[in-house]
Amino acid sequence: MSREKEVTRLSHQIYTHEEGLELQCGQMLAPLDIAYQTYGTLSPDRDNAILICHALTGDQYVADPHPITNKPGWWARMVGPGLPIDTNRFFVICSNVLGGCMGSTGSLSICRETGQPWDNDFPAITMHDITAAQAKLIDHFNIKRLFAVIGGSMGGMQVLSWAANYPERVFAAMPIATAPYQSAQNIAFNEVSRQAIFADPEWHGGKYRVHNTLPARGLGVARMMAHITYLSEEALTRKFGRRMRQNSVPAKENDLPLLFDGMFEVESYLRHQGSSFVKRFDANSYLTISRAMDYFDLAADHNADLAEIFRWSSTRFCVISFSSDWLFSTMQSRQLVRALNRAGANVSFVEIETDRGHDAFLLEEPDFDRTMRGFLRGAAAHAGLKETYHAG
Amino acid sequence: MRVDQQLIADMIPHGSRVLDVGSGDGHLIDYLFNHKGCEAQGIEIDMRSVTQSVAHGLPVIQGDADHDLADYPAHTFDYVVLQRTLQAVEKPREVLKQLLRIGRYAVVSFPNFGHWRLRWQLLHTGRMPMTPVWNTPWYITPNIHPCTIYDFMALCEAENYKVEKWLAVKEDGCSLPWHRSIRLANLFGEQALFLLRKA
């Protein structure tokens, strides 16, 4: 089944904001669809809501099985009853980002003016637009102040945007494995990903859906390259070393020179990552969102020093980095922490010791779980939240 | 909580904004929040202790007195606490200056190198003293700037800091009775605790 058919077959939970959203680029996007999932029960005072912001290729299925891959939610080990983000206590909201391809308005949506899908004509969006769209959803729930906004990687950029743009609406903020701006190195990696997509003959200048094709090779290569940046040399060595895969397909069957008879395990792993990704992600959406990431520079957006942005913030921050993450390094988190200190904000900062690179924030890391649980518990005590909320 | 931490807590009024530099396991800030309604934060150099503190819901960042105090704006806190750390920092004088820039008051504790047992050991054996308080050999000790109570008072005078309160403390943290005689405190106090402000 083609990806498009799979997506249309899905019925996401969607809030439609008819008035739409005016983007930073000046374009009006109406109506605005935000696909979302919720977990737990909203308290009568509406004070126990946590917004979870997903990363570049994540989606709203944070804790339940993914409707296309049937794999557990991307943070199923973190979000649920009794888990660090405890749904017995908190009401968790996770929405597909604006520009995404899992039900929120994005490249797959129909443009009202033309009656055609946006495809590659979807307007340029920013982190600011993404959080503004989320804010419409939070308004819809009639939630004045979120107890916490949590996210890793690009999700962390959204957390920082929330804390900067809506300080009075964020009691606690957890930017994880992220940075206050997209580094030149990360822009460079994104550019390689994009060029891989553009170079695919099936790309058709972004109108691949009109041609009933998919730039699967290009998007797959983009994912393979990006995936390397999510790991670390140590983790790759530990997982794969120089081992060759047994029984791999002979090179001539793949139209490759004899030189490529036999395959390293790491190659096979990356190919799998690439091919499974294209089943669930739209190339135009990938371009839109990766570009929004590249544009992200909190200080420049506010035309001010980082510390100035958070000067009057009463938000409680917990910044977390991972020691082997070279995509969003501890140094960048520390830069953020120093700015928050200069702002006189309430900050916690932990670097988790791990060899698993950037991906660590999605994996089993006991110290990370403890930090998450403890910070939320401490913040909840300060916010005066009750221990549990149950429906009915 | 250690007995000497209780003495520190007793110096801090209810509802103060406090920064604990070298917050260790976080017991003091935990106590200050729960029992004295303080808005207390910590800085700790050891990442394991930081993780443990944050996992207990305490606001602590990883950092150290020499490099991270300069970030805070002036008068951010009512009290800044430096427990048993002054002797281990690179630039004690600069750190003190930072404490009294970002806080109205500084609470500083340090092990007293003037204690009679240290004097006696050096005199008697001719080697660097080793006691329960000074318990690492000279070649690996982090305590690179030891001082006596006299030395500390002299520095406060030179820097124009007012000593609001001072106590000599035994190793177990109990306060000692020499409130008047600095000479006796300097001889018998294993540790010293000072409450300072800018004159």
UniProtKB/TrEMBL annotation, chain A:
Q: Which is a GO BP term held by this UniProt record? A: homoserine metabolic process
Give me the reactions it catalyses.
Answer: L-homoserine + acetyl-CoA = O-acetyl-L-homoserine + CoA
Enumerate the spans annotated as AB hydrolase-1 domain: 48-363
The annotated active site, in chain numbering, is S153 (nucleophile), D325, H358
Q: What are the EC numbers?
A: 2.3.1.31
The subunit field of the Swiss-Prot or TrEMBL record says: Homodimer.
Protein name as it appears in the record: Homoserine O-acetyltransferase
HAMAP family xrefs: MetX_acyltransf
- Pathway it works in: Amino-acid biosynthesis; L-methionine biosynthesis via de novo pathway; O-acetyl-L-homoserine from L-homoserine: step 1/1
GO MF terms listed in the record are: homoserine O-acetyltransferase activity
Q: Name one GO cellular component term.
A: cytoplasm
Major location (coarse): cytoplasm
| Organism whose genome encodes this protein | Aristophania vespae
Keyword Cytoplasm attributed: yes
Q: Known NCBIfam families for this protein?
A: homoserO_Ac_trn, PRK00175.1
Name the family the entry cites: Belongs to the AB hydrolase superfamily. MetX family.
Give me the gene this protein comes from.
Answer: metXA
Q: Does the record carry Acyltransferase as a key word?
A: yes
Role according to the record: Transfers an acetyl group from acetyl-CoA to L-homoserine, forming acetyl-L-homoserine.
Which InterPro entries does the entry mention? Answer: AB_hydrolase_1, AB_hydrolase_fold, HAT_MetX-like
Q: Where does substrate bind?
A: R223, D359
Q: Which UniProt keywords apply?
A: Acyltransferase, Amino-acid biosynthesis, Cytoplasm, Methionine biosynthesis, Transferase
| Compartments it resides in | Cytoplasm
From TrEMBL, chain B:
Xref: InterPro entries: Methionine_synth_MetW, SAM-dependent_MTases_sf
Q: Where is the signal peptide?
A: none
Can you say what this protein is called?
Answer: Methionine biosynthesis protein MetW
At the top level, the lineage of the source is: Bacteria
Origin organism of this chain?
Answer: Aristophania vespae
Q: Which Pfam families match?
A: MetW
